[in-house]
Amino acid sequence: MVRLYLLIFVVQIALAVIALISCLSAEEEEIRALPRLAWLLIILFFPLVGSIAWFLAGRPASKGGASAEPPRPTAPDDDPDFLRKLNTDQSRRDRELFDKWEEDLQRREDELRRKDSDPDTP
Question: Which of 38, 82, 105, 120 could cross-link to 34 by cystine, CB 3.0-4.6 Å?
């Protein structure tokens, strides 16, 4: 019987800790029914009932479903728009560098042709 009470106590504490973490990590405007401070006090003073109440009535509603917009990427290298823009910028810079090299090569070829066609220059 002592083992059962110990198991219930551990489950109650674990549930309360998970509910506290969930309550503290939720955005303030997404918490339902009561303000965050009220939920924290309920969970702390009534661990089992408060935790269950938090998960049933206070936790932010899930955003699943077809109408929810897809989440924005958190890092720039996960954002397809950012990568596309980066690729476009890099392509433009590569094209400018290539054009500059072509102009330089054309100028050097013209100088060599002038030297070859002009016998007076040393």
Answer: 38
Is-above-0.70 flag for pTM? no
Q: Are 33 and 58 in contact (CB under 8 A)?
A: yes
Sequence-separated (6 or more) residues with CB below 8 Å from residue 19: 43, 50, 51, 54, 55
- Residue, of 58 and 64, whose pLDDT is higher: 58
Q: Kindly give, in sequence order, each residue whose CB lies less than 8 Å from that of residue 47, ignoring residues fewer than 6 positions away.
A: 12, 13, 15, 16
- Nearest to 76, CA basis, from 92, 87, 61: 87
Per-residue pLDDT tens for 70-87? Answer: 666 677 777 788 878 878
Residue 29 pLDDT level (bands cut at 50, 70, 90):
confident
